[in-house]
Amino acid sequence: MAKYKLAIFDWDGTILDSIGTIVNSVHGAAKDLNLPILDDQTVKNIIGLRLDTAIGQLYPELSQEELRIFLENYTKHFHFLEKVAPNLYPNVIETLQKLREENILLAVATGKSRVGLDRILNMLGLADFFDATRCADETAGKPDPKMLHELLTQFGLTNKEAIMVGDASFDLQMANNANIDCIAVSYGAQPTSSLKNYSPKYIIDQFNELINHLIIP
């Protein structure tokens, strides 16, 4: 029996092993513009935000035109690297299928653009796998709870019937803002020590641990 009717997942760093791709794309775009190369963890700490917001936080000195060029260069680097190795974390498909067998609805709430999410879903053959998806460029970005509220409304559910799973503080803060339970994953962008501040019900080290937390034997 399922504990929740809807499981909502972040994408990068939770389902897709793409943290290195994002970090290297930021470094590549920065190098193109002769900007300082920030340490990896600093870049990881902004993963989950809308891309323009994230880069604006990393490089607040950029003008609007420089930011536009940075985003273009980032996209070029990302598309190249994404084609090399777009890998799901271990046991993702098997776990999601198990949740679906328990009639749990599956959704994605991501800081990615709609174009970016649809592209990678198609690359992985998962375009029809999720019951719903929300992207930052078509609603409010994290940690605003709007995309979670939209998903609840779409399925006619209350906040107590859904749970959010993510690897970043923005994911968990968004869940807190929507008064939705959340689960943190330890293998993504941010260290467990920072995720604990947002009171996740559980912290998991492997994706398939979700089965034990979302399904009652």
TrEMBL record:
Chloroplast as UniProt keyword: no
Entry GO terms, CC: cytosol
GO MF annotations in UniProt: metal ion binding; phosphoglycolate phosphatase activity
Pfam family, one: HAD_2
Gene Ontology biological-process entries: DNA repair
InterPro entries assigned to the protein according to its UniProt record, in alphabetical order: HAD-like_hydrolase_sf, HAD-like_sf, HAD-SF_hydro_IA, HAD_2, HAD_sf, PGP-like_dom2
Keyword vocabulary terms for this entry: Hydrolase, Metal-binding
Cofactor: Mg(2+)
UniProt keyword annotation of Amino-acid biosynthesis present: no
Gene3D superfamilies recorded: HAD superfamily/HAD-like, Putative phosphatase, domain 2
PANTHER family: HYDROLASE-RELATED (PTHR43434:SF24), PHOSPHOGLYCOLATE PHOSPHATASE (PTHR43434)
NCBIfam families in the cross-refs: HAD-SF-IA-v1, HAD-SF-IA-v3
Protein name: HAD family hydrolase
Species annotation: Entomomonas moraniae
